[in-house]
Records
---
Amino acid sequence: MKSCIDIGLVGLGTVGTGTAKILLENRDLIARRVGVPLELKRIVDLDVTTDRGIALPDGLLTADLPGLLNDPTIDIVIELIGGYDTAKRIMLDAMAQGKHVVTANKALLAVHGEDVFTAAARAGLDVGFEASVGGGIPIIHALTEGLAANRLTSIVGILNGTANYILTKMLREQQEFEDALAQAQAAGYAEADPTFDIQGIDSLHKLAIMVNLAYGTPVNVKDVFTEGIQHVTALDIQYASELGMVVKLLGIAKLHDGEVEARVHPALIDKDSPLAQVHGVYNAIHIVGDAVGDVMLYGRGAGALPTGSAVVSDVISIARNIQRQACGRVPPTSFPLDQRVPIRIRPMEELTTRYYLRCMVLDRPGVLSQIAGVLGNHGISIMSVLQQGRHEAQAVPLVIMTHRASERSVQTALKEINKMSSVVSQPTTLIRVEDEER
Ligand code: NDP
Ligand code: HSE
């Protein structure tokens, strides 16, 4: 048993600052929970002069990364710099020195996770990544431990705080997309490259991590269909509202006959459904297990302290394992490496769902029947049609809700519809409907 667990932290940005704050301010409580103190021994950042709004003991913050990695007293290294190559090297170097690692870096884990997990498993070390999905929501521990008894038939989540913040501002305050994004960036929610948030890539990374843990399979992110919110307009949000729905960026994974359907895209969901109540930076993940039934986890999906909470929870778990000599007890991939099997991710064209289609059309007799004809020729049945206003001189929106149809048929029909001379201005907008949440 050690009398103290020493921590090294690399990256004192948004999450690093939140993590350091929690480790310092909740020091006594955490020491009682672990049984010994957790000592924040070294912090490394490229910039050691900027005021982070946190009082650090003198000499704690340096730019000396080798000094941290080579310090034999440090038990756990926390990587919070983001990005791929340097972050991966820090984690592998730390493990090569026998140190456990904690990270919030979902991009790295989704793309290079196998290297990190394999290195940890071989060395009998722990890797904590609770903060990588859902910010402060304890979803990783839920998947690896709390729900381990279950076959998980469905995981549907609002996984990106920035995108949800933008959609919420567009709906509630009629804000422009760019203004809402700037506010999310100022609050520290957005990624260094905010296109990751907006284009669905960050949600893809998080979904890939969850699918990996839930189904015991490596996931190639290229196999997961991904579409962001960049084409969602205020007009679509308004029409959704008239239809009793809201637009959310969802990460969806469903188990079907030993295959997994995994996709990220904006979706229309019923305004009374639980996920529709998730606003602003909040995330939520709705899981269905064959034994437990429905479970919903909800909380702040980004930000310094919520994410720091998840990082520190990993540090505490690992510190407890060190004290009980139980490191490696829970495989980082949830399934031991030799129990993982590749599972086919269903290609998107095999999906069937309902669709919201908005065409900008010339307001002339016969246009609706032409479009309906194309949809009918491809076996797509119309559920309802909405057209408001009359503007003979300019294009008007024609909104069509379909019954359940195949993605392949809808995409083929849209290619034909977009070529019609009466369909003008822009390609038809397509938003999938997620109406089962299971
Ligand atoms: P920030 O950009 O705010 O912080 C990163 C910090 O690391 C910066 O201070 C940066 O310094 C420093 N840094 C970069 N490279 C190095 C290096 N080679 N050595 C030492 N320090 C370095 O990012 P966040 O805190 O927002 O994100 C950190 C990680 O957490 C990312 O992986 C992100 O995806 C993840 N995450 C973030 C969440 C959030 O709410 N922000 C939520 C969940 C996960 P400098 O600024 O000088 O470059
Ligand atoms: N940029 C991410 C988000 C941070 O907005 O959700 C949390 O992972």
---
Amino acid sequence: MIDGIHGNPTVYLNGSWLPLSDAKVSVLDRGFIFGDGVYEVLPVYGGKPFRFQSHLSRLLRSLAAIRIQAPMPEHQWASLFTELIARGEGEDQFIYLQVTRGVAKRDHAFPGPEVRPTVFAMSSPFQRPAQTVRDSGVAVVSLPDERWLHCDIKSIALLGNVLARQAAVDRGAIEAVMFRDGFLTEGSASNIWMVKDGALHAPLKNHLILEGIRYGLLQELAERLQIPVQIRRIRQQEVAQADELMMTSATKEVLPIVRLDDQPIGHLQHRGSPGPVYKKIRQAYDALIDELRLARS
Ligand code: PDD
């Protein structure tokens, strides 16, 4: 048994289905040696992938950005996910998919075309955020963003994110909210949203943040709910004085942030507790999940 993983789920590795404990890659895999690869994390509700097409498009964008040829045509990704979900445990799962540049003699430069990418995918039972967390909100800390300048690529090289997240955990918080040159970028593994005067504010979608699948989705939901959206550079000081803050990711869904650096967020009756804009967005997000569960496959 691997620490933190129950049982021995069947996983996909380079065209084979095998128990997780038998899934092995060479120590010369460029993912292991250089962090030379990309990944996706995709939630599944009621046995159906949520926003599959958006996740697939982002995977293809990430592969193209680091010049790895897509290892299979689009329709094969769909079959791979369908089979993974069928073999997975329970109705709600999350899928982790990773593609590296493959196994080759150690050399920073790319290997020749004969080296095939390593494709690994596994599904795990999805423990959605607990109702208590959704109701009471989470604490975060602010940290300087010390990552590289291609954060738009969903790279497996995540040392900057890992260190930021651990610094947050060390301070009793769930997430690190990062700032570069005094402006908000994102969380170590999430996008960050601010509410001010009834409008939803998000940082620019550029090379400094990962475009979360929930980034576009929250814009859609805000439009439907007639909440104005402002995409712009957001100063650190504004974040500390926000009416509401929230974070989004495949696994955290939408969570209200109620404390930043040990200070309560918000004003008046919502100070230190989830605000009205979060509640509306949360409800709309849950409705999408319910719709997916009810939809015919
Ligand atoms: N992380 N920004 C970063 C740096 C992330 O790692 C993530 C997601 C997001 C949100 O993206 P999405 O809405 O597509 O999940 C933003 C995943 C969940 C992870 O690394 O586990």
